[in-house]
What we know:
The chain contains ten helices and 13 strands. The protein is an alpha/beta fold.
Amino acid sequence: MILVVGGAGYIGSHMVKELLSIGREVVVLDNLTTGHRELLPDGEFIKGDLGDENLLHRIFKTYPIHTVMHFAAFSLVAESVHFPLKYYENNVAKTIMLLKVMLEHGIKRFIFSSSAAVYGEPEEIPITENCPVRPTSPYGASKLMVEDILQECDRAHGLRYVSLRYFNAAGADESATIGENHHPESHLIPLVLKAAQGEKENITIFGTDYPTDDGTCIRDYIHVTDLARAHLLAMDALENGKPGGIYNLGNSRGYSVKEVIETAGKVTDRQIPVVEGPRRPGDPAILVASSEKIKRELGWQPKFQDLETIVKTAWQWHRNSP
């Protein structure tokens, strides 16, 4: 049985759907701070916090869990700059509690949602796993801290883990029954689609003076289903006795903010009003992944690779969701 912590969130709910589709039994733990119970199609659900030691003990005593997947981090870069302690408490201290209780119950398989934010301003593009890690925000620093803790737990306790450094998760399941639904929303593609629907007056471009061709930030967008399926490969690797490790997850192709807005306008066939604003703190100019390592070692092959397809699946979800 798999414990999915943060399984009612955007990425977590897609993970639960993929696990159930291959016949795995799932328990979801989520405090619903940012998650939504209605995104979960099936499986056991427990409302609670990953830092609740007594609850964690009850879960591990009640269910035959052998693997934990962790999606329950706070993830807003700008917010982390203004409220660093909030991020270190939730993303680091509470994860330590989760790991402590896991190990007390002899559970030694862990799949962690890390982030490209650990790299900060990269020295080279595309970014490989061997690039220096110098996060420029407390959010990125919190992810790197957990990676270091996992390495130490592996060394000291035999915890076997895979850390997946996400680039920009986007899109929605092809069924359009689950998708991205944050309150408040901070990710570019859903914000642009909300502007296309008239739910937002306009879309703000934060910074037009970056050292890129059109002056706006460039990001690597990975479809959320491709991301979830990478977790399945990571789980299989750990179950088959492979050592685990750290992997980037992206499409190895970058798109600027202006290119995303242009693509969304094409997909929706609507005019999207734009205003320009100042840079946000902690935002690197370019983040594009090399995902060759996970392709080579785990056999991952993304299905939804072009931006237009990713935006189309997100648009279908936004049109269908209440």
